[in-house]
Amino acid sequence: MTDSSNLSTGHVKFLGRSQHEKLLQQRAGVFWLYGLSGSGKSTLAAALQKALHAEGRGTAILDGDLLRTGLNRGLGFSDDDRRENLRRAAEVARLFLQSGIVVICSFITPTKAFRSLARQTVGGDDFYEIYVHADFETCRQRDVKGLYAKSDAGKLQQFTGRDSGFEEPATPDLRLDTLAESKEQTLARLLKFVRARIAPLSGE
Fold this sequence. Notes:
Helix content is about 40%, strand content about 15%.
């Protein structure tokens, strides 16, 4: 964990992360959920936030669709734009982290290079890579946003899993399979994982 107790710019000093964490009675962390469109990552992210909120945890959600309506509006889906989209998201996550917040991120993040960029931006000790798995055909059948139908009709270019590749991770910090497990089962495993990493250290 990176302690930023001496955050400053010029002659101005700000409250550090450890002071925020002490107030909130939690350890901050960035939990980065990724996978194909329709894999269930946004659904799990929202359920995780609600569960943690009910336990009195301070959280923030960063979702790909939400950021593209504001901060990342204007970015397309080329490799360069995807990279910039994720770089900005990781920088925002890092700012929340320094305020002692549990940050729940939901982005497709299709390549190992993009995941590495996010990890490096946030800081490896505070970044948790959570792969939400469901195969392409399952996601296509779910098609909760209608994106697969648009892709089938040729109305959506550079679609991940079809026109643009998705690199399977070898060793994510946590793998959730929304095809093999129910939402309740995956959420239970996700909650267990997160709770163990945000509980205050003894003596804090």
